[in-house]
Design a protein that fits this description.
Blueprint (H helix, E strand, L loop, with lengths): L5 H8 L7 E6 L10 E11 L13 E8 L18 E12 L2 H4 L12 E5 L3 H12 L2 H4 L3 E11 L5 H14 L5 E6 L7 E6 L4 E4 L2 E4 L2 E6 L7 H9 L1 H21 L5 E9 L3 E11 L4 H7 L8 E2 L1 H11 L10 E7 L5 E7 L3 E4 L4 E10 L5 H20 L5 H4 L10 H4 L2 H12 L3 H5 L11 E5 L9 H10 L3 E5 L5 H7 L4 E3 L12 H16 L7 E4 L1 H10 L4 E4 L7 E6 L2 E6 L4 E5 L4 E2 L2 E4 L2 E4 L11 H9 L1
Parallel strand pairs: 19-20, 19-21, 21-22, 22-29
Antiparallel strand pairs: 1-2, 1-7, 2-4, 3-4, 3-15, 5-6, 6-14, 6-18, 7-8, 8-17, 9-10, 10-13, 11-13, 12-13, 15-16, 17-18, 23-26, 24-25, 26-27, 28-29
Helix pairs in contact: 3-10, 5-10, 6-13, 7-15, 15-19, 16-17, 17-18
């Protein structure tokens, strides 16, 4: 039998009985040359759980491509519309690596025409602006919640089939640059579904024994003449953009710290350049604590496509969006093994993706991250720009053979602007404003001694606490967690021989109808009254600080916090200036002048209103060491 050539493989793609397949170009961050195209042929299965997604053997290379729908969040107890979109696995039977010019070098004679019918957004700009305005005016937005709200573009593609999908993939390769994954996935079968997209958002990966995430947030719309330094510098200096990225990084750190051992690091921000947009992103990584499948199962979805805090954002999406998201906001995940037989995982968020069903009905979902300071008009414009970035590539007329032979544009467009010294200096300033604990680590060893017992205040706070526990372990001693509603929790906290830390969480401490908050008040009062004087401290952050302040200071009161929640500002921490991240919807005031109480140090009762574990808090390690020491 003669060896299989690239031409043979391409002929199979355009054949009448092509099996389920995927085409992937994975342009990982930092890779300067254009990545090749991977072609996977295999068998498509519908499964109930990711437990069935383990790589089938020890052979190197990809073993399974998983398609996770957005409704998979229900497996984690999170609210979402159940639209029946299945969890699918492509069991890889063949893996081919093809040069990009196998697709872009010449348009195959078998490539069919692509027709678009009845194309347009399902809802008007005015309708989307109304949704944004309603959310911006809500208590949730004022309290610091950021959420991605979607809208849908739809069209009909007559005579759609696998060959048309390959042609659309070819157009994306030619016209779009800088995407993390450019892909087509065709499920095959009597009612096939096809996904074609160019997503800038990677999610979780395992490579070289480390778990890696690439949180991305912030969108700069490239002017028609291309990016210019002054526009980029204005974008990079925008405080709102910087804080939205930091909020996303905080949310992803909370996920990654559940998946990694000590030594988590934050790098960036970097610029990811695409044909029509630029995004800012960071890279966070740490030693992998589990295998590829387990890591994927525990990682949830990218907060970029949901919001932060994650659970509250899911509830908001469920309330504001009337229908399910299908695969939008879900994941494509490639599980396999490297050359040494170790687990490998790479995954990408399903955004900027056209989903076409067996009838040729196509849907492209796009969204904007909306917060308390969002402009409805600007967010609607962002959704149009994101849709247009994909549609310009997908609907462009195919290039002539002569144009197709022209070398493709670099992975990052206009390097003179993106890599100019002034742009790099602006990125360096953004990096310098991040917490040194997460960017550099700490040389000082942990204080040692008994474990720190951390009170989980409930209200879905546990998912957000992993970064705080990571910081506690690094600066003091191992952290152990106890839920507020565990039997005998208050007594256990009082008797604990080491420091006690009341963590932050959702809710206002002055909510009269909340049984959880009433129980937390009783626990805080018991700790202040019954912990041995002169013993290890009782400390609190965020909500925990508020509870302790109310239990300690007779004149302490709760008031709504002015300004947008989540803002970083410089405060005085017992004579030392600290840039700190504030996340709670309210604050504590005290004294005759009703001044805001930032920090508390009343003998063994201590705390801070802000969040020391945030990447926006410059010396969170030093703050926490003083609270627990």
């Amino acid at each position: 039998m003669r060896p299989t050539t690239d031409a043979d493989v391409m002929e199979r793609l355009y054949g009448a009985d092509v099996p389920p397949f995927a085409l992937l170009r994975r342009q990982r961050p930092g890779l300067r040359e254009r990545a090749p195209v991977e072609l996977l042929f295999g068998e498509m299965e519908t499964v109930r759980s990711l437990d069935e997604a383990a790589a089938p053997n020890d052979a190197p290379g990809p073993g399974v491509l998983a398609l996770l729908p957005f409704r998979h969040l229900a497996e984690h107890g999170l609210p979402c519309h159940d639209d029946g979109t299945p969890l699918r696995l492509l069991r890889v039977r063949e893996h081919h690596v093809l040069p990009e010019d196998a697709f872009t070098g010449r348009r195959p004679a078998a490539a069919p025409p692509v027709q678009w019918r009845d194309a347009g957004f399902a809802t008007s700009d005015a309708h989307y602006e109304g949704l944004v305005r309603e959310f911006v005016e809500s208590d949730a937005a004022r309290g610091g919640l950021n959420v991605l709200l979607r809208r849908d573009w739809s069209a009909r593609l007559p005579e759609f089939g696998p060959a048309v999908a390959v042609e659309l993939f070819r157009r994306l390769l030619t016209a779009e640059s800088g995407a993390y994954w450019t892909f087509v996935v065709h499920t095959g079968g009597p009612r096939p579904v096809t996904l074609v997209g160019a997503t800038p958002q990677g999610h979780v990966g395992v490579e070289g024994g480390r778990v890696v995430m690439n949180p991305l947030c912030g969108t700069y719309r490239r002017p028609p003449e291309g990016p210019r330094a002054e526009g980029l510098l204005s974008f990079l200096a925008d405080r709102k953009e910087a804080e939205e990225l930091a909020t996303t990084v905080d949310a992803e750190l909370a996920v990654l710290c559940r998946l990694a051992g000590p030594g988590v690091r934050v790098e960036g921000p970097f610029l990811r350049g695409m044909a029509h947009l630029l995004h800012t992103q960071c890279r966070i990584s740490g030693p992998a604590a589990a295998g590829a499948r387990e890591t994927l199962a525990r990682a949830l979805f990218a907060s970029t496509v949901v919001g932060s805090p994650f659970a509250e954002a899911c509830e908001t999406i469920h309330g504001y969006e009337a229908t399910g998201r299908g695969y939008y906001g879900g994941l494509l995940a490639l599980i396999g093994r490297d050359g040494a037989g170790a687990d490998e995982l790479d995954s990408a968020a399903v955004i900027r993706t056209l989903v076409v069903d067996h009838r040729g009905e196509a849907r492209l979902s796009v969204g904007a991250t909306v917060g308390g300071r969002s402009s409805p008009q600007a967010e609607a414009a962002e959704t149009r720009t994101k849709a247009q970035a994909v549609l310009t590539a997908l609907t462009a007329p195919p290039p002539s053979d002569e144009r197709a032979r022209t070398p493709p544009t670099p992975a990052t467009p206009d390097p003179d602007d993106l890599h100019s010294s002034t742009v790099q200096e602006a990125l360096a300033l953004r990096h310098a404003a991040l917490s040194t604990f997460w960017t550099k680590g700490i040389a000082t060893p942990p204080t040692g001694g008994p474990a720190v017992l951390v009170l989980d205040p409930g209200g879905d706070a546990r998912a957000e606490l992993a970064a705080l526990l990571h910081l506690v372990t690094a600066v003091h001693s191992p952290a152990e967690m106890i839920r507020h509603d565990d039997p005998g929790a208050a007594g256990t906290l009082v008797r604990h021989p080491g420091p006690v830390l009341l963590a932050s969480g959702p809710g206002r401490p002055d909510d009269p109808g909340c049984a959880r908050m009433a129980a937390l008040h009783r626990t805080a009062a018991l700790l202040v009254r019954d912990r041995p004087p002169g013993g290890p401290p009782v400390a609190g952050v965020g909500l925990g600080f508020q509870l302790l302040a109310l239990a300690t200071l007779p004149d302490a009161r709760v008031v709504a916090r002015s300004g947008g929640a989540g803002l970083a500002r410089e405060v005085d921490f017992f004579g030392r200036p600290v840039t700190a991240a504030f996340r709670n919807t309210c604050t504590i005031v005290s004294g005759p002048d009703r001044h805001e109480l930032i920090a508390l140090h009343e003998q063994a009762v201590r705390g801070v209103q802000f969040r020391p574990e945030s990447v926006l808090t410059t010396d969170g390690a030093g703050v926490l060491r003083r609270l627990l020491g």
